[in-house]
From TrEMBL:
It comes from Parasitella parasitica. One of its GO terms (cellular component) is cytoplasm. Keywords: Isomerase, Isoprene biosynthesis, Lipid biosynthesis, Lipid metabolism, Magnesium, Metal-binding, Steroid biosynthesis. GO terms for molecular function: isopentenyl-diphosphate delta-isomerase activity; metal ion binding. Pathway: Isoprenoid biosynthesis; dimethylallyl diphosphate biosynthesis; dimethylallyl diphosphate from isopentenyl diphosphate: step 1/1. GO terms for biological process: dimethylallyl diphosphate biosynthetic process; isopentenyl diphosphate biosynthetic process; steroid biosynthetic process. This is isopentenyl-diphosphate Delta-isomerase. Belongs to the IPP isomerase type 1 family. SUPFAM superfamilies: Nudix (SSF55811). Its cofactor is Mg(2+).
């Protein structure tokens, strides 16, 4: 039985109607389905998989912008995570696969929606695509994530106008400050953020000033299975 969404925040329930891109394990587009359908554990357990992205935005001091997800979020509420994590939608501008343009367009859209960052401060051509991860993570008994997640880096000084329905808190951190957060068991972290950090983040962070020279990895890394 699908959960009754009446218990959740009205705006977050509305967003559950958005149409995600359903893919196979090789990230080939299969169909489209609602965000609600894609995030129900009953469907995830049957293999339903969708496309996603994770943005890591750094300022001029090479500090990483983190967000704490709002309490209103249906999945993974109140958890700290990378700058922005969401999904390209089944729309013409976000279905473009050449040079990951659809994912980049989605990243630009969601940075404005969640953090109020104007598109001109994060041009799509400035996102550096690094790799994809495939992971599965339950949020609770009903909801979870099962995604092929595109990892995008961008370095930009931005103006924030945070959407409180999406984000409870935010801060910029250095690598050592982030490691301290991970070491503190009282700080909840999203599972995909942990996987990316444990596998890739600090290596890439060390190369941030020359990140454009880092060759993108076209593999899909299966993590957390």
């Amino acid at each position: 039985m699908a959960p009754d969404l009446k218990e959740y925040d009205e705006e977050q329930v509305r967003l559950m109607e958005e149409m995600c891109i359903v893919v196979d394990e090789n990230d080939k587009r299969v169909s489209a389905d609602s965000k609600k359908t894609c995030h129900l554990m009953t469907n995830i357990k049957q293999g339903l998989l969708h496309r996603a992205f994770s943005v890591f935005l750094f300022d001029s001091e090479n500090k990483l912008l983190l967000q704490q997800r709002a309490s209103e979020k249906i999945t993974f509420p109140d958890m700290w995570t990378n700058t922005c994590c969401s999904h390209p939608l089944n729309t013409p501008s976000e279905l473009i696969e050449e040079d990951q343009l659809g994912v980049r367009n989605a990243a630009q859209r969601k940075l404005e929606h969640e953090l109020g960052i104007k598109p001109e401060q994060v041009p799509v051509e400035n996102f550096k695509y690094l790799t994809r991860i495939h992971y599965l993570a339950p949020s609770d008994g009903q909801w979870g994530e099962h995604e092929v997640d595109y990892i995008l880096f961008i370095k930009a000084n931005v103006d924030l106008n945070v959407n409180p329905n999406e984000i409870r808190d935010f801060k910029y951190v250095s690598p050592d400050e982030l490691r301290a957060m991970f070491a503190d068991s009282s700080v909840p972290m999203t599972p995909w953020f942990k996987l990316i950090c444990n596998s890739f983040l600090f290596k890439w962070w060390d190369q941030l000033d020359a990140i454009d020279k880092v060759e993108a990895d076209d593999a899909i890394h299966r993590l957390g299975f």
